[in-house]
Write a structure and sequence with these properties.
Blueprint: E1 19-33, E2 46-58, E3 63-76, E4 79-95, H1 99-128, H2 141-158
Antiparallel strand pairs: 1-4, 2-3, 3-4
Helix pairs in contact: 1-2
């Protein structure tokens, strides 16, 4: 004979702990261009110009859309070899985070989560373009965020 017991009712507590959940990662935009096929005929010694930026927008009460944009311009012997660009996006659920910490989460922590995916997309598209593997070096997003705050404060101080 099996004994049935009623489980204790679930007590719902208000959880005031900060919460951050990654709900979706996706490639929002990806492009690759080889403007001059003559780059394949010479010796490969590229000069790389890499730029990064991020943006964030609120989608709903606790949902935020963060986009990390990475652009790689490669020149070989003063000729444009390729341009690779990815906009790696993520949807994050963020709750119970003080407003003064939210900006840093969206400007440094979330892009840090997205970076390995953007790095992989850039590496893959460059390789498919028949160029040697390109692995972007890790980025200290906390330091980059602090630098951007300093620049913004310097600009508002001069205004």
């Amino acid at each position: 004979m099996t004994e049935h017991t009623n489980p204790a009712p679930l007590v719902q507590e208000t959880n005031a702990e900060p919460q951050l959940n990654l709900e979706r990662i996706y490639v929002k935009d990806l492009s690759f261009e080889v403007p001059n096929p003559r780059v394949f005929s010479g010796e490969w010694s590229p000069e790389l110009d890499i730029t990064m930026s991020s943006s964030a927008e609120q989608l709903g009460d606790n949902h935020f859309h963060v986009v990390l944009s990475v652009t790689v311009n490669a020149k070989n012997q003063n000729t444009s070899a390729f341009v690779a660009e990815v906009h790696q996006a993520g949807i994050f659920s963020i709750a119970n985070v003080p407003q003064d910490h939210l900006h840093q989460l969206l400007g440094a922590y979330c892009p840090n989560i997205l970076f390995p995916y953007a790095r992989e997309s850039i590496s893959d598209v460059v390789n498919r373009g028949s160029f040697p593997q390109l692995l972007l070096a890790p980025i200290n997003f906390d330091a980059a965020y602090a630098d951007s705050l300093e620049q913004m404060n310097g600009q508002t101080g001069n205004a």
